[in-house]
Amino acid sequence: MAAFSAAYWIEKLQLSGHIEGGYYTRTYTAEHILPKAQLPAGFHGDRPVTTAIYFLLQKHQFSAMHRIASDEIWHFYYGDPLEVFEIRPNGSLICHKLGADPDNGTRFQCMVKAGSWFGAAVQEGAEYGLAGCTVAPGFDFDDFELANRNILLNQFPQHKEIITKLTAP
């Protein structure tokens, strides 16, 4: 397999900066719309059934801790392993390892539950990872909440290292 750089994927996939860090582009928005009245609490309007993006992180970047009203499935595509850290509402921490080497504990997909705090980074010592994210019901920035470091540390002090790594001061 040819070795492509992060810059190659940013250009070829027309990725742009994401508010949480890294680069992304939306690749799909379902035509079918779910009315707000049919959605669980936490949604701030009608939503497409599903949406999908490409998402790329480099070694000097992180996807800042955030939460959304939907489940989000991450798909690994290319590059180095990514670690997706999920703090569930009950305080449990899950480190999902995305990559193409199941013998070393990585998987091609992981799922982050709606309402969990989560963020991601390239595995230590790696250059970049290219993934995709599928959200259902579909993603909308109105349902996006970027974490406040101090509030999250107060709520989950047992996860100080991860929260500090994946939030802005």
Tally of helical segments: 3
Categorize the overall geometry: globular
What is the CATH level 1 assignment? Mainly Beta
Give the domain tally: 1
Q: What's the CATH architecture?
A: Sandwich
Structural class: mainly beta
Order the strands across the largest sheet as they lie in space: 1-2-5-12-7-10
What does this structure look like?
The longest helix has 7 residues, at 6-12. The model has no long low-confidence stretch (mean pLDDT 96). The protein is mainly beta. The strands form three sheets. A six-stranded antiparallel beta sheet has the order 1-2-5-12-7-10, covered by helices on one side. A five-stranded antiparallel beta sheet has the order 9-8-11-6-13. A two-stranded antiparallel sheet has the order 3-4. The chain is globular, with a radius of gyration of 16 Å. The protein is built from three helices and 13 strands. The protein has one domain (43-165): Jelly Rolls. 12% of the residues lie in helices and 41% in strands. The chain starts with 5 loop residues before the first helix and ends with a helix.
Task: Break the fold down into its secondary structure elements and pairings.
Blueprint (H helix, E strand, L loop, with lengths): L5 H7 L3 E2 L5 E7 L3 E2 L12 E2 L2 E8 L3 E6 L3 E9 L2 E6 L5 E6 L10 E4 L4 E6 L5 E9 L8 E2 L2 H7 L4 H6 L4
Antiparallel strand pairs: 1-2, 2-5, 3-4, 5-12, 6-11, 6-13, 7-10, 7-12, 8-9, 8-11
Give the structure's gist in a few sentences.
The chain is mainly β. It has three helices and 13 strands.
